[in-house]
């Protein structure tokens, strides 16, 4: 194993840099509780398995025959790292939709003040956003999307993208990221709209009752009612939510496949 790595050291390092950048920007894998040595080991094994199937002949003129480093090679490493960050950032956008959905209705149900540090997204996130994000992560792991990402999508990215196509495809990359952001808000809105609509009706009903009977203290009962109603709706809609999470992942990976095809003809 070590002999093969040393014999292909320049190409192996290019592959390893892209894999490491992807691992460091993916949800779950990028959290601080995952040991750094585990990330490096995962990156090394991924690069070892992928390197024999990668065609980096376009880089041959920029890699010194004696294996020494040069400024051009450093720039190639930077380009490979940017490609890995781009892929990891897009997957993070998919997961951000579930956190955003929780933020949409957390204010209405009275949970907006209960923000905690989310180790997955590494931001301050309401409890409901973190709850949906954890469910999405379990579905992502259970339905083998991780294997698809590491096994097929990452390999297809080497067939489609390199440092040169990254520099010349700024337009498709910008459109790709804009589509991802658009899908983020669309998915978050679709997930949150049943709960938001129900809580709006409850708020209107409470307003009418407070006008009809001003002596009733509806503020003390309003938030418990909204919290119980929200959890009841989430429980009843959990099968549909899980199915929508799967379709959101499928649509996201389809967009990633279309981007690879537009960039260089790769497919998942």
Brief rundown of the structure:
The protein is mainly α and 268 residues long. It has nine helices and two strands.
The oligomeric state of the chains shown is: single chain
Would you report the number of β strands? 2
Cα gyration radius (Å): 23 Å
Poorly predicted segments: none
Task: Summarize the amount of helix as a percent range.
Answer: over 70%
Distance between the termini: 28 Å
Mind summarizing the main beta sheet? 2 strands, antiparallel
Can you offer a commentary on this structure?
The protein is mainly α and 268 residues long. The chain contains 9 helices and 2 strands, in the order H-H-H-H-E-E-H-H-H-H-H. It has a two-stranded antiparallel sheet with strand order 1-2. It is elongated.
Features:
elongated, mainly alpha, two-stranded antiparallel sheet, single chain, 268 residues, 2 strands, 9 helices
Secondary structure blueprint with pairings:
Layout: H1 2-7, H2 9-25, H3 36-50, H4 71-109, E1 115-118, E2 123-126, H5 127-142, H6 145-160, H7 163-168, H8 170-212, H9 218-264
Antiparallel strand pairs: 1-2
Helix pairs in contact: 2-3, 2-4, 4-5, 4-8, 4-9, 5-9, 6-9, 8-9
């Amino acid at each position: 194993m070590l002999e093969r790595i040393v014999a292909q050291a320049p190409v192996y390092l290019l592959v390893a840099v892209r894999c490491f950048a992807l691992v460091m920007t993916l949800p779950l894998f990028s959290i601080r509780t995952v040991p750094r040595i585990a990330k490096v080991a995962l990156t090394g094994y991924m690069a070892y398995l992928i390197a024999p199937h990668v065609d980096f002949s376009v880089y041959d003129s920029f890699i010194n025959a004696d294996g020494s480093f040069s400024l051009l090679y450093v720039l190639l490493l930077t380009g490979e790292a940017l490609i890995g960050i781009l892929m990891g950032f897009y997957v993070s956008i998919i997961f951000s939709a579930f956190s955003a959905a929780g933020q949409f209705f957390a204010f209405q149900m009275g949970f907006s003040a209960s923000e905690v540090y989310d180790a997955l997204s590494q931001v301050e996130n309401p409890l409901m956003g973190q709850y949906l994000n954890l469910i999405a992560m379990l579905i992502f792991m259970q339905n083998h999307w991780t294997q698809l990402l590491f096994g097929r999508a990452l390999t297809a990215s080497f067939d489609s993208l390199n440092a040169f196509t990254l520099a010349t495809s700024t337009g498709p990359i910008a459109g790709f990221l804009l589509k991802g952001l658009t899908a983020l808000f669309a998915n978050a809105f679709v997930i949150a709209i049943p709960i938001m609509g129900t809580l709006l009706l409850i708020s209107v009903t409470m307003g009418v009752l407070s006008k009809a009977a001003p002596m009733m203290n509806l503020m003390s009962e309003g938030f418990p009612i909204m919290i119980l109603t929200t959890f009841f709706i989430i429980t009843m809609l959990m099968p549909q939510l899980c199915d929508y999470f799967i379709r959101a992942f499928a649509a996201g990976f389809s967009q990633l496949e279309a981007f690879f095809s537009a960039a260089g003809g790769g497919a998942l």
